[in-house]
Design brief:
Number of strands: 13
Largest sheet: 8 strands, mixed
Number of domains: 2
CATH topology of the largest domain: D-Maltodextrin-Binding Protein, domain 2
Distance between the termini: 20 Å
Strand content: 15-25%
Shape: elongated
Radius of gyration: 20 Å
CATH superfamily of the largest domain: Periplasmic binding protein-like II
Helix content: 25-40%
CATH class of the largest domain: Alpha Beta
Order of helices and strands: EHEHEHEEHHEHHEHEHEEHEHHEE
Strand order of the largest sheet: 2-1-3-11-4-8-6-7
Length: about 325
């Protein structure tokens, strides 16, 4: 049996580990293509894959236009971090306004007074800031711009949120690997990417000021704490600018998206059963792989929501997993 998936690059390091381990344990192969959240949703809508991966939940409007009911199963929590290439790899701190101003193109030099004021004792170079951002439809971009929309009225008015936006400035790169690759090779750059990609590339990550006046370091712990909020039954919720005092401000669930009713096309019942088994394993036993790869584990409430969603999957109206 082989299952096909496509979508977000955000969780790809984790999914690679999970799917390899699942194949070793069960013999079921999972072929996942990291093409970005937008591509994953398109392929699910076109029914060319068994599941899509996305860091951006589908809107009510998008769901209403889908050919059938689509479910969102949270798999883990990830952090979108600010990373950069500067001499000595200093540990910088950013405020929400500072992040917005850099990506709006209002702050152009690394030794700008507004950066130096919140980073006392750090000698910043007199070089231009080069912004690196995504060029493809991206859940990571959705999470990042969702955060900026919440913390900056100017960003909300001029740019807004989305998987793809009209960037005021910046050099585009495809996928989280593309963004981190450019930053690693180009001095003076700054960009946003998933925490694990930055750490695996030896890049520094910034602490962000949260709404409680604390500079929060992105980590598996602070990412998980951002999700310690009441969740809707369908788990479609934003975690950015979290209300939890110790939560990292740019955190997000990443979801696997599937059709609730699996009897479509020429899909056999066994494929639906194997898909449900995989999803249950990912949200339970496979959670042991999250923290080693710099993702946050699902909190209890999110895990319980995932269980109810997975057990609601049907084939010809009959539940496929008990």
């Amino acid at each position: 049996m082989e299952l096909l998936g496509a979508g977000a690059t955000f969780p790809y390091p984790l999914y690679s580990k999970m799917f390899y381990s699942y194949w070793k344990e069960t013999g079921t192969k999972v072929n996942y293509q990291p093409i970005g959240s937008g591509g994953g949703i398109r392929q699910l809508i076109n029914r060319t894959v068994d599941f899509g991966g996305s860091d951006a939940f589908m809107s009510d409007e998008a769901l209403s236009k889908s050919p059938a009911t689509i479910l969102h199963i949270p798999i883990c929590i990830g952090a979108v971090v600010l990373t950069y290439n500067l001499p000595g790899k200093p540990g910088l701190r950013f405020t929400p306004n500072l992040v917005a101003d850099i990506f709006l193109g209002k702050i152009k030099r690394w030794n700008d007074q507004s950066i130096e004021e919140i980073n006392p004792g750090i000698r910043l170079p007199e070089i231009d800031i080069m912004v690196i951002r995504r060029s493809d439809g991206s859940g990571t971009t959705f999470v990042f711009t969702d955060y900026l929309t919440r913390v900056s009225k100017e960003w909300d008015t001029k740019v807004g949120r989305g998987k793809a936006v009209n960037w005021p400035i910046g050099l585009g790169a495809k996928g989280n690997p593309g963004v981190t690759g450019l930053i690693r090779h180009l001095p003076g750059t700054v960009g946003y990417t998933e925490l694990g990609y930055a750490l695996l590339n030896g890049l520094p990550v910034a602490r962000l000021l949260n709404k409680y006046g604390e500079f929060i370091k992105p980590s598996t712990a602070s990412t998980s704490k951002a999700a310690a909020i009441p969740l809707p039954m369908d788990t479609r919720v934003s975690l950015t600018n979290s209300d939890t005092p110790e939560g990292y401000p740019i955190s997000s669930f990443t979801w696997i998206l599937v059709y609730r009713e699996q009897a479509y096309g020429k899909r056999p019942l066994q494929k639906a059963v194997e898909l449900a088994k995989l999803l249950w394993w990912m949200t339970h036993e496979a959670q042991r792989y999250t923290e080693p790869l710099h993702y946050g584990t699902l909190p209890q409430e999110a895990s319980e929501r995932a269980e109810k969603i997975i057990t609601s999957i049907t084939y010809d109206g009959e539940r496929v997993f008990q």
